[in-house]
Fold:
Amino acid sequence: MTLRSSGDAQVRNADAPWSSFDPIAYVDHNYRVLQAEDAEILHIIGDHFGGHFRKQGVGPVYGIDVGAGANLYPALSMMPWCDEITLFEHSSANVEYLEGQVGSYGGNWDQFWNALCEHEAYGSLELDPRERFREVVKVEQGNIFGLERFGGRWSVGTMFFVAESMTTSHQEFRLGVKRFMRALAPGAPFAAAFMEHSKGYHAGEQFFPACDVEEFEVRTSLEPFAGNFEVQRLKSAAGVRDGYSGMILAYGWRRNTDAGIPAV
Structure:
């Protein structure tokens, strides 16, 4: 099946051929070299997570990266602070890629870890990142819309380029954000990244849908679930690929109670 981003017909998440996602081509195009936008993200979330966990007491910390895809750096950003990290991913092709990275991840990811280590909170840690990754990371196949069955299990979470990059439907975009946030425990720190005005994207030969969002849609989707949070458009002008106008990063903490949103 070939999908198109143009026209009025919606392409919903269930319509996309996720098993045909090419993680090797995706990594080669997006993460073989550390891009300026990702470096900016790492700087911000390093401050956010490092600052949060340095103030916390001891106790088990469970992290989740929702829609991990073929991107390891959100997990790397949580790794020092977590007893366990779940890479939650729908695509069978991406699940296979992630499972192959757990034992010893590729050398291209070293530059992302090194960027995090520019922060004293990370750089002062005496750990072997590959050994730590192997110890704490597990891969679980699942659909973002099924996260509600877990309740608020996780004490820190990330969701990078997922809710707006899996559908053209704004309804499904908002539901994806809701499911992510409700998977987090009250007070959990989070970070989520979004493509601004994305028209869809390729992973290898296959085209995948995207939902056209900007800062307003991101902020309003998060407001019921995040009590203290920031939404900002990245300053970096370099585009990783055609078909979007920028990147948006949101980060903060999960509310203790949701603001007027039904439980389902």
In short: Residues 201 and 207 are 6 Å apart (CA to CA).
